[in-house]
TrEMBL record:
It is a single-pass membrane protein. This is Protein trichome birefringence-like 19. Residues 73-125 form the Trichome birefringence-like N-terminal domain. It comes from Morella rubra (Chinese bayberry). Keywords: Membrane, Signal-anchor, Transmembrane, Transmembrane helix.
Length: 438
C-alpha cells in the first residue's frame, strides 16, 4: 500500500507558511552548512558520517555535504526488500542475546533465505548497520526501549548486531529481565528495557477471563510509573505498543469503569480496542511531555503487523511463507491500519505539544517494511513441538537473525541525520520566537 500518500489529520504534509524571514533563515542555514565544517556542526567525528565502505581520504566535503543533505529528504520507510546474500551478521552461536522463543534455527527452522534481505528505500540507500559507528555515536549516552516483548525483540537484535564490536555487561538492578539494563563499558553507553505492554497503569484483573486469554484492567488516564519515573535519565527513548491491545480489556477513566474491549461482561459497554489504544498513547505522551528533567529524543516505533494466515492466532493460524512480499503484494488494512493511524495521530499531537518545550519526537516508521515480511516470524520454530506455549504459531515476534535487524539500520541512519535536523529545528524555533516577539 502507499502508506505515505495517506493524509494524516496532523500529518507530515503540513507546510510551514513561507515568509521572507524564513526564506532568509533557510538561505543562511545553507550558507552555514557549506562554510562550517560538517563535523563541528554535528559534534561527531568526520569519519562517522561517511559511508563505512569508503576510505576516509576520499572525502570531498562539499560534494558529500550536498549529497548528505539532499538524501535527507528521502523517505527511508517507503521501499522494497532486496536480496542481501552477505547477511546475516551474527548467529545464535556468536550472540547469546537471542531470546529462546526467537531462536528459530535452534528449533529447526529449515529455510535461511528470510535472513538474507535488506531494505531499499525508493529514493536513496539505507546503509547497513555499522556497529562501531553506532557505538561511537552513543558514547556517553543512554537508550531505553519502552514497551512489550517486540520492543525487547528489537533490543536483543541490537545487542547481537553490536556483538561484533562489544558485548555489554549486565547492570540490571532487578533480576526481572523485563527491566534489564546493559552497559557497554568501552563506550560508557547504557541500554535498558522497561516493560509496559499497555503503556498506562494496568493490572491483570482475571488471569483466566471470559476468553481464557487474560482480562486486563487499564487505567487509561493514569501513568504507568514503572517506566514514567525511569526515563528522565535517558537520551533516547524508543516507545512502542500494540499486540496486547487485541486482548480483552476493561477501561477505566477517572477511576470509573467506562467500557471494555471484548470483555463479555454484563452491562459493560463494548468500546473497541482502538479507543483504549489511542488513549493509552495519549497518556504515555502526556507523561513524557510532563517530565521536568527529560531532555531526550522520543522515537515512536510504529506497529509491526503480525502475519497469521488461515485462522486467528489461537485457531490454527500460521505464517509459513519463506519470502518477503513486494510492496504491491500487501496492503496495510483493517486492524493494523487502524492501529497505525491511531498511534501516528497521537504522535503528531504529542510532537506539537512537546515542541513548545523544545522536546523532540521522531517516527521510527517500520510498519510498511514489516508488513512485507510474513517470512520473518518464528511460526512453530519458537519452541520444541511438544512445548505448550501461549503463541502456538508465533507470527508476532521476529526470528533472530531476521528482518527486525533492519530496525537498527533505520535507527542508525536517523541518528546520523539527527545532528542536522536538530540544528535546523533549533533555528526554526529561534526564528519563530523572534517573529512572535515582534
Ligand atoms: C544454534 O542453532 C543450531 C542450528 O543451526 C542448533 O543446533 C544449536 O543448538 C543452536 N545453538 C544455540 C546456542 O542456541
Ligand atoms: C558516562 O556517561 C554518563 C551519562 O550517560 C555521564 O554522566 C558519566 O559522567 C560518564 N562517565 C564517564 C566515565 O565518562
Ligand atoms: C445489568 O442490568 C440489568 C438491568 O438494568 C440488571 O437487572 C442486572 O442486574 C445488571 N447486571 C449486572 C451484572 O450488573
Ligand atoms: C496446553 O495448554 C492449554 C491451556 O493451558 C491446555 O488446555 C492444553 O491441554 C495444553 N496442551 C498440552 C498438550 O499440554
Amino acid at each position: 500500500m502507499k502508506l505515505h500518500s495517506l493524509e494524516l489529520p496532523l500529518g507530515k504534509n503540513q507546510q510551514i507558511p513561507k515568509s521572507p524571514k524564513i526564506v532568509l533563515v533557510v538561505a543562511f542555514t545553507l550558507l552555514f552548512l557549506v562554510v562550517v565544517p560538517y563535523y563541528t556542526l554535528l559534534n561527531y567525528p568526520l569519519y562517522l558520517l561517511k559511508n563505512p565502505s569508503e576510505p576516509p581520504t576520499s572525502y570531498d566535503s562539499q560534494d558529500d555535504l550536498v549529497s548528505i543533505s539532499s538524501s535527507d529528504d528521502c523517505d527511508l520507510f517507503s521501499g522494497e526488500w532486496i536480496p542481501n546474500p552477505k547477511a546475516p551478521y551474527y548467529t545464535n552461536q556468536t550472540c547469546w542475546a537471542v531470546h529462546e522463543h526467537q531462536n528459530c534455527m535452534k528449533y529447526g527452522r529449515p529455510d535461511t533465505e528470510f535472513m538474507k534481505w535488506r531494505w531499499k528505500p525508493s529514493g536513496c540507500d539505507l546503509p547497513l548497520f555499522n556497529p562501531a559507528q553506532f557505538l561511537e555515536l552513543m558514547r556517553g549516552k543512554s537508550l531505553v526501549f519502552v514497551g512489550d516483548s517486540v520492543g525487547r525483540n528489537q533490543m536483543q537484535s541490537l545487542i547481537c548486531l553490536l556483538s561484533r564490536v562489544e558485548y555489554p555487561i549486565d547492570v540490571s538492578n532487578t533480576p526481572d529481565q523485563k527491566f534489564a539494563r546493559w552497559t557497554y563499558t568501552s563506550y560508557n553507553f547504557t541500554m535498558a528495557a522497561l516493560w509496559t505492554p499497555h503503556l498506562v497503569k494496568s493490572k491483570d484483573a482475571d488471569s483466566d477471563g471470559p476468553t481464557h486469554n487474560g482480562l486486563f484492567s487499564l487505567y487509561l488516564d493514569e501513568f504507568d510509573e514503572a517506566w514514567t519515573t525511569q526515563i528522565e535519565e535517558f537520551d533516547y527513548v524508543i516507545i512502542s505498543a500494540g499486540h496486547w491491545f487485541f486482548r480483552p480489556m476493561v477501561y477505566y477513566e477517572n477511576r470509573q469503569r467506562v467500557g471494555c474491549h471484548y470483555c463479555l461482561l454484563d452491562n459493560v459497554t463494548d468500546l473497541n480496542m482502538y479507543y483504549g489504544y489511542r488513549k493509552a498513547f495519549r497518556t504515555a505522551f502526556r507523561a513524557i511531555n510532563s517530565l521536568e528533567n527529560y531532555k531526550g529524543i522520543t522515537y515512536l516505533r510504529t506497529f509491526a503487523p503480525s502475519h497469521f494466515e488461515g485462522g486467528l492466532w489461537n485457531q490454527g493460524g500460521n505464517c509459513v511463507r519463506t519470502k518477503p512480499f513486494k510492496s504491491n503484494e500487501a496492503k496495510l488494512e483493517g486492524q493494523s491500519l487502524e492501529i497505525y493511524m491511531a498511534q501516528v495521530e497521537e504522535f503528531r499531537r504529542a510532537e506539537k505539544e512537546g515542541k513548545k518545550k523544545g522536546l523532540r519526537y521522531r517516527l521510527l516508521d517500520t510498519t510498511q517494511a514489516m508488513l512485507l515480511r510474513p517470512d520473518g516470524h518464528p511460526s512453530r520454530y519458537g519452541h520444541w513441538p511438544h512445548e505448550n506455549v501461549t503463541l502456538y504459531n508465533d507470527c508476532v515476534h521476529w526470528c533472530l537473525p531476521g528482518p527486525i535487524d533492519t530496525w537498527s539500520d533505520f535507527l542508525l541512519e536517523m541518528l546520523k541525520r539527527e545532528g542536522v535536523r536538530s540544528y535546523e529545528e533549533r533555528l526554526q524555533f529561534l526564528s519563530d520566537r523572534k517573529l512572535n516577539a515582534r
